[in-house]
Design brief:
Length: 757
């Protein structure tokens, strides 16, 4: 008996994480989870407040991982299955920071005015007044910073909250000590005490403003997915024995008959069983033109019935609907990191301890050689170093952009599997394109049937259509449609087999039907006449053999998509080399290539040949993307660096794809490349800003430029800069959600194409 090999049951789960504020938090969670036996991969996302963990459930369980996260200093809330895919904590954070900020602002304003007056507005016991106003600002308004610092500090860690807590505490308690012990620091008889209550209060106020704006920005980056979630109606009207019953949409069952009225949103995927209507599917596909729906037509959850009334049978409900799958895929995409983020992650792992060390060394140096009073200057400089350093911007630079980009793409019917796919697509130099259903409409029509002298045209078409009933290929559908239109009777085949890229074989009424490419039929032992019928122009051919003898040929024509020439031209203008590979006849492929001005093309290729072509171009030009829509394309899609499938792709094809286009219109292909390029541009801008900010800000705060320019940074300015850095990164990322739409006219309708600001 041969030994059976069983693959390990690795699974991946997403855990919500509360309390993360910066890249250092992300690095610590990833590091501690990664140390656990049985954990294969950990990806923590600051923007979505989630941790994606791939693990072996035989070695480690969820409770163990939750315990590790909590020991690191963070919490994992117990969310229900129906929790939103984008962190719900952003809303809570916004509500928490708003009142704290406004109270801090009201109390800090007089503290700031009195302190900046430099004694002109002093009155008896002014320092006590400042202390009374500053204390609630520091300890109530600033409580989130102290709580966060304690949460990680008790487990031996540090993060941005640690820097804030230490800096503010130093300014506050030094001021208290200086106020009550003036003789210690200033000598007997000197009653003017220098305090820094304004520094502590202003730092807290500005950082709260930054956190509030940051929370609002995070929430906005998730607006696209939130909008998708809102597409599902809360209630549905279902036909029961007792009549029409209103039930919550999440209680719909497969087979329920749902009544749809004008203006209503469709609650589940289903099929029309009664009525005619016009449906707006733009919320899922990005296609602005409404679609007519009638009996037998498919409906998708989240789309809108514009006019007319329908009865629909639910075929997919709950998590199985197209809408929920879009949300799930986008959620997964936002949890996958772009490779460009690795450098930021590596720096974040030791960022805070290094900053603490720099602040300590800076304090000592300024205390020893700084101008009098040395301790005051040393304190201000050290606090400035702690406050100005910002790991937040590093942590948000990539995930905020990926979240905004993938969310916006999802609203336009483009699904990216993650930030890694976004980056790879941007790097693609070559695009390998399938012909049928991608460059062409995928709706071929039978133009003629040429039978041998032993069979009639109708007889050949009837037998072929019968044999093709179990095939999903567009040519098979066209043959069946032609047979039905001619009133031919079809018989269900038996012993059906399908060889991808070759053809089909089946038995119909006891006769063995073999159909497909001529060279493939030859390998099946089919005998051909000395010469085959020639066609007046390039057309797809299905050679048909009955019981091993050639019986005729069915000719088909699949029109080129009206938008294909323009899209191919735009892709070539952006520097992408387009290669067409098709299993169709070489003369048909050459004809399409000529119409679309594609210089490199391959005809009569098998699925493995397509994969080989992709590999060859990877060696020639580097990163290669492949777009297709059928099972024949699955090997090539898996071989390509980025696989792209269109709406009608099979499940096998979708599994191999990094990008899914819900709209077969090729304009979405160009839009996917545009979104990829713009997202990577924003990520690079964010990382550049985050790195340059810290590279310049920390030395400036440490007083490195003081001997040359006489510049020392006030801690209040440092806190404003720290708050601005995170808000700037988020604002820059949100530009992706505001990309302008420019309409371009083709010969059949108006298309929308993405163009950046």
């Amino acid at each position: 008996m041969s030994e059976r090999v069983i693959s390990p049951p690795y699974i991946e789960i997403t855990l919500p994480v509360e309390g993360m504020t910066c890249a250092s938090c992300v690095a610590r969670i990833e590091r501690n989870l990664g140390k656990q036996k049985g954990v294969l991969e950990t990806r923590v996302n600051l923007a979505t407040a989630q941790a994606n963990v791939r693990f072996d459930p035989r070695v480690i369980i969820r409770d163990d991982m939750v315990q590790v996260i909590e020991k690191t200093g963070f919490t994992v809330p117990d969310l229900s299955v129906d929790a939103p895919p984008v962190s719900a904590f952003f809303e809570d954070e916004t509500g928490d920071y708003r009142p704290r900020f406004w109270l801090a602002f009201v109390f800090t304003l007089p503290v700031f005015v009195l302190s900046m007056a430099h004694g002109a507005l002093d009155f008896p016991n002014v320092n006590v007044f400042l202390l009374v106003l500053t204390t609630p600002v520091v300890f109530w308004c600033g409580w989130p910073f102290f709580r966060g610092a304690w949460r990680v500090g008790r487990h031996g860690g540090s993060d941005m909250n640690t820097l804030v807590a230490v800096g503010v505490s130093a300014a506050y308690f030094f001021s208290v000590y200086s106020m009550f012990q003036p003789m210690v620091l200033h000598g007997v008889g000197n009653h003017h005490t220098q305090v820094y209550f304004e520094a502590a209060a202003v730092i807290i106020t500005l950082l709260l403003l930054g956190r509030w704006m940051e929370a609002k920005g995070k929430r906005k980056t998730g607006d696209a997915i939130r909008g998708l979630m809102d597409l599902a109606p809360p209630v549905s009207f279902v036909l029961k024995r007792e009549g029409v019953v209103e039930i919550p949409s999440n209680q719909l069952q497969v087979g329920d008959v749902v009544l749809l009225k004008p203006g209503s949103r469709i609650p589940a995927d289903g099929m029309v069983v009664e009525g005619e209507a016009v449906v707006d599917e733009s919320s899922l596909t990005g296609e602005p033109i409404p679609v007519d729906k009638f009996i037998g037509q498919a409906l998708r959850a989240g789309t809108i019935l514009i006019n007319g009334g329908l009865k629909m049978v639910a075929t997919q409900v709950g998590e199985m609907t197209t809408l929920q799958q879009i949300i799930r895929l986008t959620r997964e995409a936002q949890g996958r990191k772009a490779p460009i983020q690795r450098l930021a992650d590596q720096i974040a792992a030791f960022f805070v301890p290094v900053v603490m060390s720099i602040a300590t060394v800076t304090f000592v140096i300024w205390y020893l050689i700084g101008p009098a009073p040395a301790i005051h200057t040393a304190l201000l400089v050290a606090v400035s170093v702690l406050i100005i350093s910002c790991p937040c911007a590093l942590g948000l630079a990539t995930p905020a952009a990926v979240m905004a980009g993938t969310g916006w793409a999802a609203r336009k019917g483009i699904l990216f599997r993650g930030g890694d796919v976004l980056e790879k697509l941007h790097e693609a130099k070559t695009l390998v394109v399938d012909k049928t259903g991608t460059l062409t409409l995928g709706k071929p029509t039978v133009t003629s049937v040429i039978a041998s002298e032993n069979y009639s045209d109708e007889g050949v078409l009837s037998l072929l259509a019968s044999a093709e009933q179990l095939s999903e290929h567009p040519l098979a559908k066209a043959v069946q449609k032609a047979a039905v239109e001619r009133g031919l009777t079809l018989t269900l085949p038996s012993a059906f087999t399908n060889e991808a890229g070759g053809g089909i074989e089946a038995y119909v009424n006891g006769k063995r039907i073999t159909a497909g490419r001529a060279d493939w039929l030859t390998t099946k032992g089919v005998s051909f006449p000395a010469s085959l019928p020639h066609t007046p122009f390039a057309q797809s051919r299905i050679e048909v053999a009955i019981d091993g003898i050639w019986a005729g040929v069915v000719l088909l024509n699949d029109p080129v998509r009206p938008e294909s020439p323009h899209v191919i031209q735009k892709l070539k203008q952006t520097g992408i080399h387009v290669v067409m590979a098709s299993g169709d006849a070489p003369e048909v492929v050459a004809d399409v290539a000529r119409k679309l001005k594609i210089d490199t093309f391959y005809g009569a290729v098998s699925p493995m040949d397509k994969a080989r072509i992709v590999s060859e171009w990877q060696q020639k030009t580097g990163v290669v993307a492949m777009i297709g829509d059928g099972i024949n394309d699955a090997p090539a899609l898996a071989t390509a660096d980025v696989g792209i499938v269109v709406q009608l792709g099979t499940d096998v094809a979708k599994e191999a794809a990094g990008v899914t286009l819900l709209n077969p219109d090729l304009q979405t292909l160009f839009m996917a490349f545009t979104i990829s390029a713009e997202t990577m541009k924003v990520i690079r801008q964010n990382l550049f800003f985050a790195f340059v900010y810290n590279i310049i800000g920390i030395p400036l705060a440490a007083g490195v430029f003081y001997p040359i320019f006489g510049i020392l940074l006030n801690p209040m300015i440092g806190s404003a800069a720290m708050a601005l850095s995170s808000v700037s990164v988020l604002s820059n990322s949100l530009r992706l959600a505001k990309m302008k739409k420019q309409t371009i006219t083709t010969n059949h309708r108006i298309h929308e194409i993405a163009n950046p600001n």
